[in-house]
Write a structure and sequence with these properties.
about 325 residues; alpha/beta; 2-enoyl-CoA Hydratase, Chain A, domain 1; eight-stranded mixed beta sheet; 13 helices; about 40% helix; globular
Length: about 325
Protein backbone atom coordinates (compact mmCIF):
# COMPACT_ATOMS: atom_id res chain seq x y z
CA UNK A 1 0.00 0.00 0.00
CA UNK A 2 1.25 3.46 -0.88
CA UNK A 3 -0.08 6.76 -2.20
CA UNK A 4 2.61 7.02 -4.87
CA UNK A 5 4.52 4.04 -6.23
CA UNK A 6 8.29 3.46 -6.52
CA UNK A 7 8.44 4.72 -10.11
CA UNK A 8 6.82 8.05 -9.26
CA UNK A 9 9.02 8.40 -6.18
CA UNK A 10 12.13 7.88 -8.30
CA UNK A 11 10.96 10.41 -10.90
CA UNK A 12 10.03 13.11 -8.42
CA UNK A 13 12.59 12.74 -5.61
CA UNK A 14 15.31 10.57 -7.26
CA UNK A 15 14.88 8.12 -4.38
CA UNK A 16 15.34 4.48 -5.41
CA UNK A 17 13.07 2.22 -3.34
CA UNK A 18 11.34 -1.11 -3.89
CA UNK A 19 7.60 -1.63 -3.51
CA UNK A 20 8.22 -3.74 -0.39
CA UNK A 21 10.43 -1.09 1.21
CA UNK A 22 7.95 1.67 0.35
CA UNK A 23 4.70 0.06 1.44
CA UNK A 24 5.17 -3.58 2.40
CA UNK A 25 3.38 -5.32 5.26
CA UNK A 26 6.36 -5.08 7.61
CA UNK A 27 6.70 -1.34 6.94
CA UNK A 28 3.07 -0.61 7.76
CA UNK A 29 3.04 -2.89 10.81
CA UNK A 30 6.27 -1.58 12.38
CA UNK A 31 6.85 2.00 11.17
CA UNK A 32 3.74 3.71 9.80
CA UNK A 33 1.13 1.96 12.01
CA UNK A 34 -1.22 1.79 9.01
CA UNK A 35 -1.64 -1.95 9.67
CA UNK A 36 -2.47 -3.36 13.10
CA UNK A 37 -0.86 -6.71 12.30
CA UNK A 38 1.08 -8.66 9.69
CA UNK A 39 0.92 -12.43 9.28
CA UNK A 40 2.79 -15.08 7.32
CA UNK A 41 -0.03 -16.11 4.97
CA UNK A 42 -3.74 -15.76 4.21
CA UNK A 43 -4.74 -18.77 6.33
CA UNK A 44 -3.13 -17.39 9.47
CA UNK A 45 -4.56 -13.93 8.71
CA UNK A 46 -8.12 -15.29 8.46
CA UNK A 47 -7.72 -17.33 11.65
CA UNK A 48 -6.49 -14.28 13.57
CA UNK A 49 -9.29 -12.12 12.14
CA UNK A 50 -11.81 -14.66 13.42
CA UNK A 51 -10.24 -14.37 16.88
CA UNK A 52 -10.50 -10.58 16.69
CA UNK A 53 -14.14 -10.59 15.53
CA UNK A 54 -15.02 -12.93 18.43
CA UNK A 55 -14.05 -10.13 20.82
CA UNK A 56 -16.06 -7.40 19.10
CA UNK A 57 -19.78 -6.52 19.37
CA UNK A 58 -21.80 -6.36 16.16
CA UNK A 59 -22.50 -2.65 16.74
CA UNK A 60 -22.16 0.07 19.36
CA UNK A 61 -25.51 -0.71 21.05
CA UNK A 62 -25.32 -4.52 21.12
CA UNK A 63 -23.10 -4.78 24.21
CA UNK A 64 -19.89 -6.77 24.34
CA UNK A 65 -20.19 -10.46 23.46
CA UNK A 66 -20.28 -12.89 26.39
CA UNK A 67 -18.73 -16.34 26.05
CA UNK A 68 -18.97 -19.19 28.54
CA UNK A 69 -15.80 -19.25 30.64
CA UNK A 70 -14.43 -22.08 32.73
CA UNK A 71 -12.02 -19.70 34.48
CA UNK A 72 -13.00 -18.88 38.06
CA UNK A 73 -13.60 -15.16 38.63
CA UNK A 74 -12.20 -15.50 42.15
CA UNK A 75 -8.99 -17.17 40.90
CA UNK A 76 -5.83 -15.91 42.57
CA UNK A 77 -2.38 -16.15 41.04
CA UNK A 78 0.28 -16.03 43.77
CA UNK A 79 3.08 -15.73 41.20
CA UNK A 80 1.97 -12.12 40.59
CA UNK A 81 3.19 -11.22 44.08
CA UNK A 82 6.78 -11.68 42.85
CA UNK A 83 6.32 -10.26 39.34
CA UNK A 84 7.75 -6.84 40.21
CA UNK A 85 11.56 -6.96 40.70
CA UNK A 86 12.99 -5.57 43.92
CA UNK A 87 15.21 -3.25 41.87
CA UNK A 88 12.95 -0.43 40.54
CA UNK A 89 15.16 -0.09 37.44
CA UNK A 90 14.84 -3.75 36.45
CA UNK A 91 12.25 -4.56 33.74
CA UNK A 92 9.55 -7.22 33.70
CA UNK A 93 7.07 -8.32 31.02
CA UNK A 94 3.66 -6.69 31.44
CA UNK A 95 2.17 -9.24 29.03
CA UNK A 96 2.77 -11.92 31.67
CA UNK A 97 0.47 -9.98 33.98
CA UNK A 98 -2.24 -9.61 31.33
CA UNK A 99 -2.11 -13.30 30.38
CA UNK A 100 -2.50 -14.30 34.04
CA UNK A 101 -5.44 -11.92 34.55
CA UNK A 102 -7.63 -12.66 31.50
CA UNK A 103 -9.94 -15.64 31.10
CA UNK A 104 -8.01 -18.79 30.16
CA UNK A 105 -4.92 -16.77 29.17
CA UNK A 106 -6.58 -15.63 25.93
CA UNK A 107 -5.24 -12.21 24.92
CA UNK A 108 -5.37 -10.78 21.38
CA UNK A 109 -2.74 -8.06 20.99
CA UNK A 110 -3.12 -5.30 18.40
CA UNK A 111 -0.20 -3.48 16.73
CA UNK A 112 2.28 -5.69 18.58
CA UNK A 113 5.25 -4.64 16.40
CA UNK A 114 4.61 -0.87 16.52
CA UNK A 115 5.40 1.29 19.59
CA UNK A 116 6.27 -1.76 21.67
CA UNK A 117 6.59 0.37 24.81
CA UNK A 118 2.81 0.22 25.15
CA UNK A 119 0.61 -2.86 24.84
CA UNK A 120 -2.97 -2.76 23.50
CA UNK A 121 -5.37 -5.61 22.89
CA UNK A 122 -8.49 -7.52 23.85
CA UNK A 123 -9.13 -10.15 26.49
CA UNK A 124 -12.09 -11.37 28.53
CA UNK A 125 -12.98 -11.05 32.19
CA UNK A 126 -15.89 -13.20 33.41
CA UNK A 127 -16.60 -14.11 29.78
CA UNK A 128 -17.01 -10.49 28.60
CA UNK A 129 -14.67 -8.55 26.31
CA UNK A 130 -12.34 -5.99 27.88
CA UNK A 131 -9.80 -3.70 26.21
CA UNK A 132 -6.35 -3.61 27.81
CA UNK A 133 -3.84 -0.75 27.69
CA UNK A 134 -0.53 -1.30 29.49
CA UNK A 135 2.93 0.25 29.65
CA UNK A 136 5.66 -2.26 28.74
CA UNK A 137 8.75 -1.88 30.99
CA UNK A 138 10.69 -4.25 28.70
CA UNK A 139 10.88 -1.54 25.99
CA UNK A 140 12.26 1.95 26.71
CA UNK A 141 11.37 1.34 30.38
CA UNK A 142 7.70 1.84 29.46
CA UNK A 143 7.97 5.58 28.74
CA UNK A 144 5.35 7.33 26.63
CA UNK A 145 6.52 8.74 23.31
CA UNK A 146 4.63 10.11 20.31
CA UNK A 147 4.06 6.70 18.69
CA UNK A 148 2.90 5.05 21.93
CA UNK A 149 0.52 7.93 22.67
CA UNK A 150 -1.06 7.75 19.21
CA UNK A 151 -1.34 3.97 19.32
CA UNK A 152 -3.01 3.95 22.74
CA UNK A 153 -5.30 6.91 21.91
CA UNK A 154 -6.54 5.17 18.76
CA UNK A 155 -7.26 1.99 20.73
CA UNK A 156 -9.04 3.83 23.56
CA UNK A 157 -11.25 5.67 21.07
CA UNK A 158 -12.07 2.38 19.34
CA UNK A 159 -13.11 0.75 22.63
CA UNK A 160 -15.22 3.74 23.60
CA UNK A 161 -16.92 3.76 20.18
CA UNK A 162 -18.09 0.17 20.68
CA UNK A 163 -18.78 0.37 24.44
CA UNK A 164 -15.95 -1.97 25.41
CA UNK A 165 -14.70 -1.47 29.02
CA UNK A 166 -11.03 -0.54 29.38
CA UNK A 167 -8.53 -1.82 31.95
CA UNK A 168 -5.25 0.12 32.17
CA UNK A 169 -2.02 -1.16 33.75
CA UNK A 170 0.33 1.70 34.64
CA UNK A 171 4.11 1.51 34.98
CA UNK A 172 5.28 4.73 33.37
CA UNK A 173 8.36 6.76 34.39
CA UNK A 174 7.32 9.73 32.23
CA UNK A 175 7.39 11.04 28.68
CA UNK A 176 10.44 10.36 26.51
CA UNK A 177 12.69 13.46 26.59
CA UNK A 178 14.68 14.82 23.68
CA UNK A 179 14.58 17.21 20.74
CA UNK A 180 13.35 14.54 18.31
CA UNK A 181 10.24 13.99 20.45
CA UNK A 182 9.58 17.67 21.11
CA UNK A 183 10.04 18.65 17.45
CA UNK A 184 7.73 15.79 16.50
CA UNK A 185 4.90 17.26 18.58
CA UNK A 186 5.02 15.09 21.69
CA UNK A 187 2.78 17.55 23.57
CA UNK A 188 0.06 17.24 20.95
CA UNK A 189 0.36 13.45 20.64
CA UNK A 190 0.32 13.04 24.41
CA UNK A 191 -2.78 15.24 24.49
CA UNK A 192 -4.50 12.80 22.14
CA UNK A 193 -4.27 10.03 24.73
CA UNK A 194 -5.35 12.39 27.52
CA UNK A 195 -8.30 13.52 25.41
CA UNK A 196 -9.26 9.96 24.43
CA UNK A 197 -9.46 8.84 28.07
CA UNK A 198 -11.25 11.98 29.26
CA UNK A 199 -13.95 11.55 26.61
CA UNK A 200 -14.63 7.90 27.50
CA UNK A 201 -18.10 6.92 28.67
CA UNK A 202 -17.23 3.23 29.18
CA UNK A 203 -16.07 1.68 32.50
CA UNK A 204 -12.45 2.60 33.22
CA UNK A 205 -10.43 0.57 35.73
CA UNK A 206 -6.77 1.45 36.37
CA UNK A 207 -4.12 -0.57 38.22
CA UNK A 208 -0.75 1.02 39.06
CA UNK A 209 1.83 -1.75 39.28
CA UNK A 210 5.01 0.26 39.83
CA UNK A 211 6.05 3.71 38.57
CA UNK A 212 3.43 6.41 37.99
CA UNK A 213 5.33 9.64 37.55
CA UNK A 214 4.29 13.13 36.56
CA UNK A 215 2.23 14.05 33.51
CA UNK A 216 2.51 10.55 32.06
CA UNK A 217 0.62 9.22 35.10
CA UNK A 218 -2.17 11.75 34.50
CA UNK A 219 -2.45 10.66 30.87
CA UNK A 220 -2.69 6.94 31.74
CA UNK A 221 -6.33 6.90 32.89
CA UNK A 222 -5.78 8.65 36.21
CA UNK A 223 -8.64 9.54 38.52
CA UNK A 224 -8.28 13.19 37.54
CA UNK A 225 -9.33 12.53 33.93
CA UNK A 226 -12.30 10.33 34.71
CA UNK A 227 -11.19 6.80 35.61
CA UNK A 228 -13.87 5.12 37.74
CA UNK A 229 -11.65 2.97 39.96
CA UNK A 230 -7.92 3.32 40.51
CA UNK A 231 -6.09 0.55 42.33
CA UNK A 232 -2.40 0.30 43.21
CA UNK A 233 -0.14 -2.59 44.13
CA UNK A 234 2.03 -2.21 47.26
CA UNK A 235 5.02 -1.77 44.91
CA UNK A 236 3.48 1.34 43.32
CA UNK A 237 5.41 4.62 43.34
CA UNK A 238 3.15 7.61 42.70
CA UNK A 239 4.86 11.01 42.50
CA UNK A 240 5.82 13.91 40.26
CA UNK A 241 9.16 12.22 39.55
CA UNK A 242 11.54 9.58 40.90
CA UNK A 243 13.13 10.02 44.32
CA UNK A 244 16.73 10.43 43.12
CA UNK A 245 15.91 13.07 40.51
CA UNK A 246 13.64 15.00 42.86
CA UNK A 247 16.16 15.04 45.71
CA UNK A 248 18.99 16.24 43.45
CA UNK A 249 16.80 19.18 42.39
CA UNK A 250 15.35 20.09 45.81
CA UNK A 251 18.59 19.60 47.76
CA UNK A 252 21.16 20.43 45.10
CA UNK A 253 23.32 22.07 47.77
CA UNK A 254 23.89 18.60 49.31
CA UNK A 255 24.86 16.81 46.07
CA UNK A 256 28.49 16.45 47.18
CA UNK A 257 27.46 14.67 50.40
CA UNK A 258 26.44 11.07 49.52
CA UNK A 259 25.12 10.30 53.01
CA UNK A 260 22.85 13.34 53.07
CA UNK A 261 21.51 12.59 49.59
CA UNK A 262 20.83 8.97 50.59
CA UNK A 263 18.96 10.12 53.71
CA UNK A 264 16.94 12.68 51.75
CA UNK A 265 16.11 10.05 49.11
CA UNK A 266 14.85 7.64 51.77
CA UNK A 267 12.78 10.45 53.33
CA UNK A 268 11.28 11.34 49.93
CA UNK A 269 10.40 7.70 49.21
CA UNK A 270 8.64 7.31 52.56
CA UNK A 271 6.76 10.61 52.41
CA UNK A 272 5.76 10.82 48.74
CA UNK A 273 6.27 7.58 46.79
CA UNK A 274 4.18 5.23 48.96
CA UNK A 275 0.82 4.15 47.48
CA UNK A 276 -0.68 4.42 50.97
CA UNK A 277 0.03 8.15 50.96
CA UNK A 278 -1.72 8.44 47.59
CA UNK A 279 -4.67 6.45 48.98
CA UNK A 280 -4.90 8.77 51.99
CA UNK A 281 -5.12 11.77 49.70
CA UNK A 282 -7.73 10.19 47.42
CA UNK A 283 -5.59 9.76 44.30
CA UNK A 284 -6.29 6.03 44.31
CA UNK A 285 -9.21 4.05 45.71
CA UNK A 286 -7.41 1.10 47.29
CA UNK A 287 -4.09 -0.68 47.62
CA UNK A 288 -4.58 -4.30 46.53
CA UNK A 289 -2.45 -7.41 46.61
CA UNK A 290 -1.18 -8.45 43.17
CA UNK A 291 -2.58 -11.99 43.47
CA UNK A 292 -6.13 -10.64 43.87
CA UNK A 293 -5.97 -8.36 40.79
CA UNK A 294 -8.23 -10.51 38.60
CA UNK A 295 -10.90 -10.73 41.32
CA UNK A 296 -10.84 -6.98 41.97
CA UNK A 297 -11.06 -6.13 38.25
CA UNK A 298 -14.00 -8.54 37.79
CA UNK A 299 -15.85 -6.99 40.74
CA UNK A 300 -15.15 -3.46 39.51
CA UNK A 301 -16.43 -4.22 36.00
CA UNK A 302 -19.54 -5.92 37.40
CA UNK A 303 -20.26 -2.84 39.49
CA UNK A 304 -19.74 -0.51 36.52
CA UNK A 305 -21.67 -2.51 33.90
CA UNK A 306 -24.58 -0.04 33.91
CA UNK A 307 -22.39 3.07 33.91
CA UNK A 308 -24.07 5.97 32.16
CA UNK A 309 -22.51 9.35 31.35
CA UNK A 310 -24.52 12.38 30.29
CA UNK A 311 -22.65 14.01 27.40
CA UNK A 312 -23.25 17.77 26.97
CA UNK A 313 -24.85 18.97 23.74
CA UNK A 314 -22.30 19.97 21.10
CA UNK A 315 -21.66 19.60 17.41
CA UNK A 316 -18.55 17.48 17.96
CA UNK A 317 -15.47 17.50 20.15
CA UNK A 318 -12.27 19.20 19.08
CA UNK A 319 -9.71 16.43 19.33
CA UNK A 320 -6.03 17.53 19.16
CA UNK A 321 -5.35 15.90 15.80
Amino acid sequence: MFVTGPDVVKTVTNEVVTAEELGGASVHATKSSIADGAFENDVETLLQMRRLIDFLPSNNTAGVPEWPSFDDIERQDLSLDTLIPSNPNQPYDIKELILKIVDEGDFFELADTFAKNIVTGFGRIAGKTVGFVANQPMVLAGVLDSDASRKAARFVRFCDAFNIPIVTFVDVPGFLPGTAQEYGGLIKHGAKLLFAYSQCTVPLVTIITRKAYGGAFDVMASKEIGADLNYAWPTAQIAVMGAKGAVEIIFRQDIGDADKIAARTKEYEDRFLSPFVAAERGYIDDVIMPHSTRKRIARALAMLKDKHVEVPMKKHDNMPL
